[in-house]
Amino acid sequence: TMSAAEDAEWLRWVTKQFRSIAGEDKEIDLEEFKTALQVKESFFAERFFALFDADGSGTISLEELLKALSLLVHGNEMDKLRFLFQVYDVDEPSLLPVWALRRIGVPALTRCGARSPRAGSGSIDPDELRVVLRWCLRESTIALPEERLGDLTLALFEAADKDHSGSITFEELREELEGFPEVMENLTISAASWLKPPPPAERSCRPRYLTRAYWHNHRSKLAFLGGYAGLNLLLFALAALRHAGFGGWLAVARGCGQCLNFNCAFLAVLMLRRCLTWLRATPIAKVLPLDQHVVFHQLVGYVVLALAAVHTGAHVANFSRLARQDGRHALAEYLLSARPGVGGLGGTASQTGLALQGLLAAMLAFSSPCVRRSGHFEVALGFPCFSSSVILHGPHFWKWFAVPGCLFALEKVVGLVWRRAGGLRIVEVNLLPSKVTHLVIERPRFFHYKPGDYVYLNIPAIAAYEWHPFTISSAPEQPETLWLHIRSLGQWTNKLYEYFQRPEWPSVEPKPLSRSLREKRCRRWAQVGADGAQLSADAECYIDGPYGTPTRRIFTSEHAVLIGAGIGITPFASILQSIMYRYRRRKQSCPSCHYSWCQDLGDEEMTLRKVDFIWINRDQKHFEWFVSLLTKLELEQAEQEPGGRFLEMHMYMTSALSKNDMKAIGLQMALDLLAAKEQRDSITGLRTRTQPGHPDWSKVFGKVAEEKRGKVQVFFCGSPALAKVIRAHCERFGFPFFKENF
User: Fold this and answer.
1) Predicted model pTM
2) What's the CATH code, domain 4-93+119-195?
3) Strands 647-653 and 690-692, how do they pair?
């Protein structure tokens, strides 16, 4: 219900929007209405237009628009329901476009009938319902066969036709919708963003970074940053004080130089992926923010750039002062000539310092996002050259760099040996919807990893010297192969997809990994030994890893919430499989009565009590990437535990309109009814019902908090924009949030 002030503001907003849409003629025609309504298909635009156009003039005036919008924005439930019924009552010829009339067998010329456009037959028959549901599917970008459309029509019609008369009356529709009170309360045309004025911006008394929840959830990172800043200040102060008697510029230069000794060595520490992976399995992982090591590496890199600039500038200023005092040597001589006692190897500190400035500028340029996306980022791997130059420049840097430098060199040697130990066979390739390449790779001996870990992949046939990180999507308990799901988003990944798409590759039917929709919709190339075709010798690959990720914490959680957006499901695919392997080991059964129960695992193996898995996809075909895996997981969960279901899945399809939208309410009701009848979802084939639109995170996390199944931890892999939204909700509920780099 709107107040008088809100109603006046709404009227001003609609009037303003009307003038911007209508133009000089002060009337909105059908094409302008379609553009403003932002609908995908013409069917609903024409239906709404006919209902808005009360006088049947073919245009909508401001008065007609205000009357219709007033009903939709703040009308009562009965008004909205009557409008919805008129939308579905499509047998009135004057309300149908020509192509829809032909579909139900009505001649187009009857569009000129004299009846009021708002007057319908008063009932909805199965053919009318089928026409509307077909356009509902198109509006939500859901593709179903005609047979499935018939099933949906029958399910909704049988539920709504209470008296079995063969048609649905207004009263019967109202009675059916009473079972969806939350839908009727908010029923509107959600795509029409111009119906309501923009909501006022929420004002917070304190910035997010000053809230108690933020400091609690980021205490490890903030403590680390505080210690890092404090150590830099201490090093700067001590070095500057030692050289204070030689002038202010030299004191600043020496202070920055001491900080550079520490930061350049610390850069190497943050690049020790194998050591950091090992540390994740130790108690140190609970204290140090190891999950943010990539962010800290970038931060320290920028600190090095800033310190180097100040260090060089202070030295130039000091040399300029000395040149003025001396009078015999120009500034250029101080900068370009070796002078014993200045520092560096043979007094070349000035020359090596200038060279380092150029090298830093080149590293900054080649590590920029635009260069990395171009596929030429391998030229940015100049850290060994940089560290060698710093050793020549700074007389004491080697003391700082000795330990991390040796570890860095050792990791590189181990990686080189591992990479050159021999290529691995690509056992199978599946090309999935939306240009996703599923590689099944021979698993090397003694290759041990944790769920959610990633590897660096090199395929010489694609690019001989490029290594790219990808998450392992198979479980560690799978002994013979590794799975990688790679989406084509860049130059290298597109080349990979196109390489296996070439027509000269043999198309064979391998032994299926599982029965799923994927078997019907993806092309396969497989090496199946003596019974099938062989991939050519150049279709081998090399891997380097594994390396750990934040998702290793999942098995030490009590209630884990896993959120994957699109291909961000990849790390969770491995984790879910591993969970089910462990869950399977817990199950025990009595040989006599066949009663089954679950045996508790030790805390060191898995402390999980509940897992909520949320997968958000833009459209229907993306669910096919892992539908076979999810089907297996549902079969494992067919029998609930005494304490409730251990794994609960939630699927969201963002392109589908929500149940509150008039263009989708009938479809969503039919999908609900058919899913309840058949115990499977019509969109994915899973038992879990696919929900339309975006998750309501307040409700999702509120439900998780109410379950009280233990300490909740939220793990996310997806776009940075969605990560910010989920992180904010986690802070509000006090849930620790862990983000996979995506």
Assistant:
1) 0.74
2) 1.10.238.10
3) parallel
